[in-house]
Design goal:
single chain, 131 residues, two-stranded antiparallel sheet, 2 helices, 7 strands, rod-shaped
C-alpha cells in the first residue's frame, strides 16, 4: 500500500515540515514568532493601556500610604508621578458624584487644581434603590 504524503511547508519560514500531518510550523520558534507578529499591533496598545492603569493605581496607593481616609491632593502632584487621567477601569457613583476607579482605588476632581483620592472600600457608594 503506497500512501503518498503531501509535502507541507512552515507557515512562518517556508521550510519543509516533517512529522504530523496537521502541523503548520516547523518548530516552536516559528509558531511563537508567527503569533507574535499577528497580535503585535493590538498587544502593543493593550500593553500600553495596562501600564498606564497599573501606574495610576500605584501612584494613588503610594500617596495614600496606610491612611484609611480619602486624601485631597494637588492635580500636579499626581502628574509629577506619571498619573494619566485618561485611563481608569470603571466609574462609581457616590453622594451624587462620579468617582473614576482604577482597580481598587478611586479619584474625583474637586477643582482644576485639587483631586480627592481614596481606597474603593472608603468610598461610600450609593445603594441601589428598588423601583
Amino acid at each position: 500500500m503506497d500512501i503518498q504524503q503531501e509535502i507541507k511547508y512552515c507557515t512562518y519560514c517556508d521550510k519543509q515540515i516533517r512529522g504530523r500531518s496537521d502541523k503548520k510550523f516547523c518548530n516552536d520558534f516559528c509558531r511563537s514568532s508567527y503569533h507574535y507578529e499577528i497580535n503585535r499591533t493590538t498587544s502593543t496598545l493593550v500593553h500600553a493601556i495596562n501600564l498606564s492603569l497599573r501606574r495610576n493605581r500605584k501612584v494613588i496607593q503610594m500617596l495614600l500610604g496606610s491612611t484609611n481616609e480619602p486624601l485631597e491632593v494637588e492635580r500636579d502632584t499626581l502628574l509629577v508621578y506619571g498619573f494619566n487621567f485618561n485611563y481608569f477601569t470603571h466609574m462609581k457613583h457616590a453622594n451624587c458624584k462620579t468617582y473614576m476607579i482604577c482597580y481598587d482605588f478611586g479619584y474625583i476632581p474637586l477643582s482644576k487644581e485639587k483631586v480627592l483620592i481614596a481606597h474603593l472600600k472608603n468610598i461610600p457608594l450609593e445603594s441601589q434603590k428598588p423601583d
